[in-house]
């Protein structure tokens, strides 16, 4: 049982880190494809799909814990509220930036005079991304803690603190 669980968590963690690397790569190098409209659309769709899959993998790992299955989802929510909110906010920032860049700026891809609001959204998105990367990676690694899956004493101690 433990060996099967270890393989499952290792594979989920691998895919979570893969999604982060893909997101980081697209954020870093998508400007190289700005002259090719279809390539930019493909990259942005791939990034948004990776963000959705990473959020799904994170929620899946939350739901597979013993804590959640024992009916104490509020403990998990309290512990992982910030990463969940940051993930959703980053996803919506990404969607807004991608839509604006593809729909509003497709005619002149090499123009460097963006509207001020688009520039502000781009800066906010790029400043928000390291926060997302840090919290998501920290949460994914924290979810591999065996206490979430088997230790009843830890749950009892968390409930007694409340």
From TrEMBL:
GO cellular component, one term: cilium
Keyword Iron-sulfur: no
A Pfam match: TMEM138
Membrane topology, from the record: Multi-pass membrane protein
Entry's Gene Ontology BP terms: cell projection organization
Keywords: Cell projection, Cilium, Cilium biogenesis/degradation, Glycoprotein, Membrane, Transmembrane, Transmembrane helix, Vacuole
Subcellular compartments: Cell projection, Cilium; Vacuole membrane
Chief localization: other
Membrane spanning residue stretches: 12-33, 39-63, 84-102, 114-135
PANTHER family for this protein: TRANSMEMBRANE PROTEIN 138
The protein's role, per its UniProt record: Required for ciliogenesis.
Family classification: Belongs to the TMEM138 family.
Protein name: Transmembrane protein 138
Native species: Anopheles coluzzii
Lineage summary: Eukaryota, Metazoa, Ecdysozoa, Arthropoda, Hexapoda
């Amino acid at each position: 049982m433990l060996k099967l669980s270890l393989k499952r968590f290792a594979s989920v963690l691998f895919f979570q880190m893969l999604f982060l690397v893909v997101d980081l790569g697209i954020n870093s190098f998508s400007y190289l494809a700005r002259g090719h409209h279809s390539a930019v659309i493909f990259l942005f769709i791939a990034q948004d799909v990776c963000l959705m899959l990473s959020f799904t993998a994170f929620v899946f790992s939350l739901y597979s814990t013993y804590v959640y299955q024992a009916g104490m989802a509020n403990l998990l929510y309290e512990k992982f509220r910030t990463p969940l909110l940051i993930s959703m906010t980053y996803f919506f920032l990404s969607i807004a930036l991608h839509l604006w860049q593809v729909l509003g700026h497709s005619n002149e891809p090499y123009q460097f005079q963006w509207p001020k609001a688009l520039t502000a959204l781009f800066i906010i998105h790029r400043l928000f991304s390291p926060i997302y990367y840090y919290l998501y990676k920290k949460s994914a690694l924290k979810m591999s803690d065996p206490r979430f899956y088997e230790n009843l004493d830890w749950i009892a101690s968390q409930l007694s603190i409340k």
